Amino acid sequence: MNQLNPIIYPRSADKETVYLKSVISNPNIKVGEFTMYNDFVNDPVLFERNNVLYHYPINHDKLIIGKFCSIACGAKFLFNSANHTFASLSTYPFPIFFETWGFDVQQIATAWDNKGDIIIGNDVWIGYEAVILSGVTIGDGAIIGARAVVTKDVAPYTIVGGLPAKPIRKRFSEENIAKLLKLQWWNWSNEKITKHIQAIQSGDIAQLQ
User: What pTM value is reported for the model?
Assistant: First the structure.
């Protein structure tokens, strides 16, 4: 359970929104404090089963999500085992069916191309039904548009959208982005965040110095 916010539901009457860290049991999924997931279609407690796809233990890949992220309903994280290797003359994943084709079970991972972990920074907003592919890193403060398919890394404080997702614009000036990345307010104590929450909400970066 999350030590800083051990409750599952941030709002007692709202069973569609959870603190994600409090419902994760898979050791290959790491989630920071106060990151939340909303789902009005399925039970948000079942995030691991419904939203983290093709995440097979044999591949040892990881989903790492930072603090204070907002993940909208239906967002999906599509892992390496969803890939079929490009090196083969066929797209058919023969090693998966090792019993039929005489492969050793330990060769299963040769059926796909391993592109790496999915890493989500802090204070990232992932929109409705967005899809994040394996090997992608999303920087702090980024925004992923609804139903975007993210195939490449996203720079900090960048808004992306589309299929495949492409940069739309930066959220702030390069100067202010540099200041925010240096400040890392998400690593402050709860007390310090509370003290500066009006400045955070109003976008007054000068008050955070």
Answer: 0.92
